[in-house]
């Protein structure tokens, strides 16, 4: 990538490389703003940048989604110029030595469910929810990377049908069981991946992760995921987490999730464990760090959380602690238009569902 893009953006650094392209930090010489520029080769088909443009245009002005400043083609590359955000949750997790407090994880859950609810309210599913898709800027958690998104509504108001053999979509570690079963994904699958992301942040690993990466093939992970019972993934942590996962796993393919219930459950955890230990929305300083934990040693991490009272940090040294307000779900705009989504979402009359092993036919539109 040349240092100057379209005579306007001065490339300063490579922020990271994804599966399909790279993200650079740059300065907009016209506005003097810091921006992030995502590029991919024009030969990539289907273009994930094209999809990102469509989604970001739909989400314009929504809280927690980066602004889309510009886009185009330059030197055989599709590019988009985005609002520059901070670190992603995976990087922040590493900065905190792979140890976040229960309140911190629940707080991330509150923000994640708000972003997912907004995306779904725009009739879009993400299909690749994972910690690295959430970036922090100021006190807000942003959702990024819309290259795998899909609209779950077609012909104006019909829900997409539940087809099979669709091919694997997502990231192995965080993918839903339906993604492994190659079943068409819907809103419930974004929520299942969110639960796995939070479990990873609580535990430092996931039970289907093997320290020997050659054992982490799609088929092996899929089998281990399917065989695991629900509570064991959140064992030793507040029951609200496993209740949310059980709720999400029980959702019908077509069903509009109760985002407010999930948000309120996270909020209950924060109320129980206290807001004062939430450090993640501030830049970590050396003395914020807790004892280093090996992220691959599941038992150590879990033991640490089991005897959890307060995070192992010297609170007198925390000057900038963010006391994050988590308001009631009823007052948040993301959860208000739920009725409208449900009403808009019809199922084609003759469609057959295969949920939970049962076979039944929808006779009426709902
Ligand atoms: N608007 C942004 N501002 C700052 N950094 C960003 C922005 N968007 C993405 N990034 C960072 O750029 C890096 C690459 O992101 P990208 O979404 O292309 O791939 P990824 O999520 O790392 O991988 P994959 O494509 O496999 O999911 C990540 O570190 C991400 O945090």
UniProtKB/TrEMBL annotation:
UniProt keyword terms in alphabetical order: ATP-binding, Nucleotide-binding
GO MF, one example: protein kinase activity
UniProt-recorded name of the protein: Casein kinase I
InterPro entries, per database record: CK1_Ser-Thr_kinase (IPR050235), Kinase-like_dom_sf (IPR011009), Prot_kinase_dom (IPR000719), Protein_kinase_ATP_BS (IPR017441)
Residues that bind ATP: 38
Residues of the Protein kinase domain: 9-299
Stretches the record annotates as Disordered: 289-308
């Amino acid at each position: 990538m040349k240092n100057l893009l379209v005579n306007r953006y001065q490339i300063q650094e490579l922020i990271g490389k994804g599966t399909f392209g790279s993200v650079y930090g740059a300065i907009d010489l016209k506005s003097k703003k810091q921006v992030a520029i995502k590029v991919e080769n024009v030969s990539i088909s289907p273009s994930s940048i094209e999809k990102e443009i469509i989604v970001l245009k739909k989400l314009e002005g929504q809280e927690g989604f980066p602004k889309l400043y510009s886009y185009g083609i330059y030197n055989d590359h599709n590019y988009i110029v985005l609002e520059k955000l901070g670190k992603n949750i995976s990087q922040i997790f590493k900065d905190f030595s792979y140890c976040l407090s229960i309140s911190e994880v629940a707080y991330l859950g509150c923000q994640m469910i708000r972003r997912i609810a907004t995306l779904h309210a725009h009739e879009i599913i993400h299909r690749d929810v994972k910690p690295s898709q959430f970036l922090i800027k100021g006190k807000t958690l942003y959702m990024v990377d819309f290259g795998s998104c899909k609209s779950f509504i077609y012909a104006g108001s019909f829900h997409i049908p539940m087809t099979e053999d669709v091919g694997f979509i997502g990231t192995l570690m965080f993918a839903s069981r339906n993604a492994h079963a190659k079943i068409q994904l819907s809103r419930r699958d974004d929520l299942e991946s969110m639960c796995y992301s939070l479990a990873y942040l609580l535990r430092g690993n996931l039970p289907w992760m093997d320290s020997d990466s050659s054992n982490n093939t799609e088929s092996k992970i899929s089998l281990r995921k399917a065989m695991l019972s629900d509570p064991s993934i959140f064992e030793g942590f507040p029951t609200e987490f496993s209740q949310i996962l059980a709720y999400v796993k029980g959702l019908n393919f077509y069903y509009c999730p109760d985002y407010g219930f999930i948000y309120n459950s996270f909020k209950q955890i924060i109320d129980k464990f206290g807001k004062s230990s939430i450090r993640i929305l501030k830049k970590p300083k050396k003395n914020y760090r807790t004892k280093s934990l090996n992220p691959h040693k599941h038992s150590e991490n879990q033991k640490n959380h089991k005897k959890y009272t307060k995070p192992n940090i010297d609170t007198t040294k925390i000057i900038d602690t963010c006391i994050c307000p988590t308001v009631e779900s009823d007052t948040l705009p993301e959860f208000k238009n739920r009725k409208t989504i449900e009403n808009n979402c019809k199922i084609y009359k003759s469609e057959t569902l295969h949920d939970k092993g049962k076979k039944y036919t929808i006779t009426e539109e709902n």
